Please model this.
Amino acid sequence: MSDFSPTVTAVSSAVQKVDADALVLGVAKGPDGPVLLPNPLAEKAAKGVSDSLSALGATGAADQLLRLPGVEGFKTETLVLVGVGKLTGEPDGGVSLESLRRAAGSAVRQLSSAKSVALALPAATVEQVAAVAEGAALGAYNFPHFKSSQKARSKTPVAEITVLTELKDKNTAPAVARASAVGAAVRAVRDLVNTPPSHLYPESFAEEVKTQAKGTKLKVKVWDHKDLEKEGFGGLLGVGNGSSRKPRLVRLEHSPAKPAAHIALVGKGITFDTGGLSLKPSNAMTTMKLDMAGAATVAAVVAAAAELDLPVKVTGWLCLAENMPSSTAQRPEDVITIYGGKTVEVLNTDAEGRLVLADGIVAAGEENPDAIIDVATLTGAQMIALGLRTVGVMGHENLREDIVGASENAGENHWAMPIPEEAITGFESTVADLSNLGAREGGMLNAAAFLREFVPDRADADQTALDPEEKRIPWAHIDIAGPAFNEKGAYGYVHKGGTGVTVRTLISYLEGLTR
Ligand code: BES
Ligand code: MN
Ligand code: ZN
Model:
């Protein structure tokens, strides 16, 4: 795994002396053509660039990148114009924080041959400085570890990021440090998701998490195959049975002195999903190394909570298994017993995520946290419902809305999707408590309804209450199936492959609990 991490700093004095390979300015799409955004160039130089925008072909469209010779008065060799997209028409200059993240990320991503980049994008407030820093930290990424040539392997992304600002505010440095930590968390998820299943399997995943937790205050506990058998984790065992690489459950804990709340995060960690005996067709099987993105997200968010010293107790539960067909694989019509005792008739071995998550949700609930949030690449139906860039958030109404609100602050698209009453119909089994296969229509919501059956009651629940929702631990389910992996072209700060989506939303959600 990579230990690459760019340095990110904000500089507010003598910006002309900043020695970087490239100086990036923003160009927006104005109502009457391209507009050069506020920048630290001398008036004459700025006018020169501004006047030639149209002639240079600059449109201000997002992801457009133009390289020009350096300008007088700056030490940088190259002047770079990056498109920021349409102006919002707001009085704050009309550039949203997310367009700043994307523009900074796009520039740093596309300038990968540069060692150092200085960004002169709108940065007049702490929020704007933070957005530019965060976008840049997200753009600085590559994954060359499996290339054979030394040359390819030693290529690093932009390693030195400088955010130019006039702002002198004591809150800038911590905001930039936070942006850098968020960037590291997202890159960690991308690395795990991009690592091929030949190299990432339950045992190696658990080892990697242990390695990364060394030297931090995080507590790590790993259940190996024997432990899972002893304690009856039937979901993980059933799904993992077809593979010679046995399942693992990992519990991570960030435990500050006076926590404002305890949030449990549960992640789906199928290191490869062949579908099992309900085998996927080969075209649907490629990309299925992504199926552990939920667990990677959970691991990275717990680590970020520790790194940022958030005053919230966070426990992370990684449900790790490889879903393979073999003579030891679970069969359609097998009945398994989920941790805690509920039985499930497995009618489709490709609906495996809900089985391992059920184990994890019950185990997380035993500690009576204030909320349980699971993150999973759970259903193909997520993509049919919401597309490739919008994450679905289901479950407890207030919790769901809080997560969606946090995603708006973070600049990620998460949509609330209430679970309709009928979603659980179809999961009836004639032999077990439930089957794992519901209706095809509304598959994302049905899967959520299945998971909800495993959410334990609060320790202090009023057992006479009739509404089960009142008794249950508040629970939300986040389906990242499509957005977790970018098979199409790179854009903004999003590279091809693993995206690290939902990391920023969850960090922002945890931060919001203490405000
Ligand atoms: N891991 C898949 C879901 C998935 C599909 C994620 C495509 C990302 C991209 C999951 O385990 C799965 O196979 N789900 C089935 C469920 C069905 C059998 C009820 C699906 O969505 O088809
Ligand atoms: Mn599957
Ligand atoms: Zn799966």
User: Anything to note?
Assistant: The domain at 7-167 is CATH 3.40.220.10 (Leucine Aminopeptidase, subunit E; domain 1). Residues 378 and 479 are 6 Å apart (CA to CA). The longest strand covers residues 262-273.
